[in-house]
Structure formats: C-alpha cells, structure tokens
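Journal club prep — side note

Before the paper discussion, L.F. wants everyone to see what a predicted structure for a comparable chain looks like in token form. Sequence:
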Amino acid sequence: MDLVTARITQLCERLKLGTIGTEWPAIADAAIHREDSLGQFLERLLTAEADARDRRSREVLLKLATLPSVKTLEQYDFGYASGAPRSQLMELGSLAFIERAENVVLLGPSGVGKTHLASAYAFKATQAGIKTRFITAAGLMLQLATAKAQGRLKEYMNRAVLGPKLLVVDELGYLPFGRDEANLFFHVIAKRYERSATIVTSNLPFAQWAGTLADDTTLTAALLDRLLHHAHIVQISGESYRMKDKRRAGHVRVAG
C-alpha cells in the first residue's frame, strides 16, 4: 500500500466512509476506463457510500421489526383467497396510510392470510426506511405487564409503542385480556391515535371485541372510536390456507 492509499484509508476511517475506503480504487479504475470527469467520479463514490448506508439501514430496521418471517404482497395467493379485496390490499401496499398516520384493521377467520398481509406491509415499510415493529397481541400484553411491574412502563411506551412509525399488533382476540391488560392495550391505541399508523389483525368481528377486552363495553367503545376514526377496514373471508395444504396432503377428508 503506497502512502497516498494509506492516507485515504485513514481519512475514510476517520470520516466513517467505509464503503469509499474499500471501493474507491475499483471505482477510480472504472472512471478512467469510461473517461469520467472528476465530478462524475466523485458522484459515483458518494453514491456507493449512500447506497451501502441505505442497505445497512434497511437491514437494521428489518431486524428491529421482529417479523415472524419475511412475506411480500406478491407472494399472497389472491387466486385462492377469493374473499380478499385485492384492489384495497394492493392500494394499501403504497404505504400512504403510514404517512397519514392511519390505521389498518385486517379481519377474518383463522388462516386466510391476515398475518401474511400484515407482515408484508411491515417488511415493505422497513425497506422504505420506516421504523416498524411487529408483535402479537399476547406478546405485547406480556411486555407491557412486565414493564409495568418493573416500573418501566413509561420508558417502554416511549420506546416500543410510540417509537415505531408503524406498529403491527397481530392476533387480537385469540386470547382474552384481563382488566389491567385491556387498559394497557387501550393506552397503546390512544397514545398512537393520529400520531402513528397501527395495523391490527383479528379473527373476531368488532361486535365481539368486548369479550377479549375484559367484557368492558365502555373501554371497547372508546378504543374502537380511536382505532377506527382514521382506518382502513379489510374484511377477508374464505377457507384456511393451512386446511387447504392439509387437504392436499391427504390429512383432511373432504365430505361429500
């Protein structure tokens, strides 16, 4: 390594320009071959650094989102899910609802792809540079209850509830909440109201949500008022994907 190269390497390390520090010789060789101007060479250097930083940022956002798995809208089987409103779901894929701090509620029986869709929106958000968090309703309640017991509820709410620009709460209604849990969930929705976007998936129609929220009809009405004020309600009907796969495998007998 000559002295000029060594000094460039040291300066790039000092300025935290890691990609330029490793890739500038190849970019310089390509620039000479193309007979680029100095301005074009500099632009290619800066573009390489910016692209690398964007890539690392997306990787970090994806890791922090804690998705159960990476899903995309393109992978969703609209051919099988005939009860899924395709145009509405694809329009939500623009993520404009996040910028408008609007909510999305995905309703439907178990196995019709609600978690897949919620994961797809969350994944797309991370790739767009949006801070996102995915968690089940049961997991959220456990973490909230633990934070409250440890005297860290305000800190947790600020970091994990108010921090993400998109929060996905999956599987609301699979397990009933106690009164304290229902109150905590209400505060989650209330604090994010008109500030950040929230996606909620549930196998229950709204009329049955009170049964999940400690049979508190007053709290449920107040929660729904905030959740649905600026919301896209997506009703999905159809047969479970998992039952379809079992039937194909011969594990479920078709009556006839």
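L.F.'s comment for the group: Residues 38-65 form the longest helix (28 residues). Keep this in mind when we get to the figures.
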